[in-house]
Amino acid sequence: MINLVPFTPVLLNTRNFRQTVSLCRASNLALLWREYQVQRSFKIHTRRSYRIPEICRSETRRKLRLPDPNIFSAKMRHLNECHSQLELVEETKLPAKIRPQNVTVAVEGNIGSGKSTLLKHFENLPYCEVVEEPLDQWTNLEGHNALGLLYENPERWSFSFNMYAQLTRIDMHLKPHTLPVKMLERSLFSTRYCFVQNDYMSKTINPFEFSVFSQWFDFLTSSGKANLDLIVYLRADPSTCYERLRKRSRKEEAVVPFSLIESLHKLHDEWLLEKKYPVPAPVLVLDANHDLDAMKEVYKVRSQEILCGYH
Known about the structure:
- By secondary structure, this protein is of the alpha/beta class.
- The protein folds into two domains: 9-92; 103-306, P-loop containing nucleotide triphosphate hydrolases (Rossmann fold, 3-Layer(aba) Sandwich), CATH 3.40.50.300.
- The protein has helices at residues 17-45, 54-64, 69-92, 115-122, 135-139, 146-152, 154-174, 188-201, 207-222, 238-248, 258-272, 292-301, 303-306, and strands at 103-109, 128-131, 181-185, 230-235, 283-287.
- The protein has a five-stranded parallel β-sheet.
- Helix 1 (17-45) runs antiparallel to helix 3 and helix 7 (154-174) packs antiparallel against helix 8 (188-201).
């Protein structure tokens, strides 16, 4: 008599779950093959007397030491039921520790609004990585200072710089997550809705150049590679931003006029507050007019909001 030990799914250990499933499947195949051999042997030895009474057939099975087919089939049904339950458990997956979802946060704001200060405040957290604007690329593109050329002669270089800036922005978006929270210093969207829009309105790029840039922007954003989970808008008065810009004394920004700061402030408000242009994610607005110590306290108090629940 074949002795079968039924499988019981509730006793499975999650550590060797897949090995157990494989064992169950292998056992099932072995039993099917054994059942075929038994049935074939039984048929051969009773071929000439299949009409004889059941008691005679039972005697034949006893003499041949064959298992009772009914008992064998019951064992097989039990094993198949266990196998089906294992398949269901495998399909729905056993409970496991769920890793937090990666999030991308864009820090937006005018020139001099305090974006770098915010990023430095969070850059050393164990679950946060910071992606700053690629100023080194903008100021040294194979020996050319693209940012300096833009500020010196915007009518000549606005389109060229913004096309290159768009390329570096998408590189920022495409950078793989190494930690759950990735914070970007500006995004592809502010390049389009604030800086390029300002250039178009001030006629430093013509309608043809604006259309070329816009179609590239639409292509890049429709790919789903520039998605954001949150926008943190550091909103500061144009006078505050201009004063900070003067204090930090970046060589390329020495010729930046106050009118540009005012125009960018208006465009950021139209985009993120008035929703004049598409907003790709929820917006968290922070008053950035305070001094450095006060802003650090704001970042500390509202860190969980800024980091999408991480703290």
